[in-house]
Amino acid sequence: MKYFFKIFFIIVLFSSYCVKADEVSNWLKGEIDTILDSYKNPSLSNFKRFELIEKTINNNFAGTGIAKFVAGESWQNASKVEKKDYIRLFKRHLALNIASLMQGYSDQNYELTNSKYDSKNKVSLIDMKIINETGNLLVTWRVKKSKNRNYVIDLIVADISLVVTKRSEFNSMLKKVNYNLLEFNKILDAQNESSYSIIIGN
């Protein structure tokens, strides 16, 4: 009898994890479709399209948390004003990066192939397969729930973490300015302006 209850408990627990993961998958699909559909809408100007995409990404990515992680040791020595400015610039940088990435796959089909809930880290892992003529690309979305809201905390493309990559990239640039966030913000602002001009076609 004890064995039966143990098996029953495992089944119920596994089922609850599947339900959680499936709920997140449905939410994620809606957000991805919002971005991809914007590229398929010919009535949207590049300016309006990016405005919509940036709003979607800012609402659904854990931008502030990712920004702090990516800043590394420079975060501790920065002033409140510098931190606030950096978070604003990083969120724009993240939106520009994701918009550019999604644009590259906007004319291809995708499907969410697998979803699981990591109970230890309280993170849902959603696998997305992008289907094209040359082969398939696997993208894994890491999603965490906070205050009854889902937030993307990382995006793994072909086994490469966007967050880890950004931390390494930013660390190299921060090192050149002696981890001075004020000086780094100027560099990031200039980068954003350049990327934005490319995306909207100026």
How would you describe the overall organization of this protein?
The chain has helices at residues 2-40, 46-60, 63-71, 80-104, 162-176, 181-200, and strands spanning 109-118, 123-132, 135-146, 149-157, 160-161. With 202 residues, the protein is of the alpha+beta class. The chain has a single domain, classed as Nuclear Transport Factor 2, Chain: A (Roll), CATH 3.10.450. Strands 1-2-3-4-5 form a five-stranded antiparallel sheet. Helix 3 crosses helix 4 (80-104).
Helices and strands, with pairings:
Layout: H1 2-40, H2 46-60, H3 63-71, H4 80-104, E1 109-118, E2 123-132, E3 135-146, E4 149-157, E5 160-161, H5 162-176, H6 181-200
Antiparallel strand pairs: 1-2, 2-3, 3-4, 4-5
Helix pairs in contact: 1-2, 2-4, 3-4, 3-5, 4-6
Keywords summarizing the entry:
Nuclear Transport Factor 2, Chain: A, alpha+beta, disordered N terminus, five-stranded antiparallel sheet, 61% helix
Binned, the helix content reads: 55-70%
Contiguous low-pLDDT stretches (5 residues minimum) are 1-19
- Strand fraction equals 15-25%
Order of helical and strand elements:
HHHHEEEEEHH
Say what the CATH topology is: Nuclear Transport Factor 2, Chain: A
Oligomer: single chain
CATH class: Alpha Beta
Measured distance between first and last alpha carbons:
71 Å
How many E-type strands? 5
- The structure class reads alpha+beta
Form type: globular
CATH homologous superfamily title: Tgt2/MlaC
Gyration radius over CA: 19 Å
Tell me the count of domains.
1
**Largest beta sheet, briefly?**
5 strands, antiparallel
Mean of residue pLDDT values: 85
Count of helices? Answer: 6
Strand order of the largest sheet: 1-2-3-4-5
CATH architecture: Roll
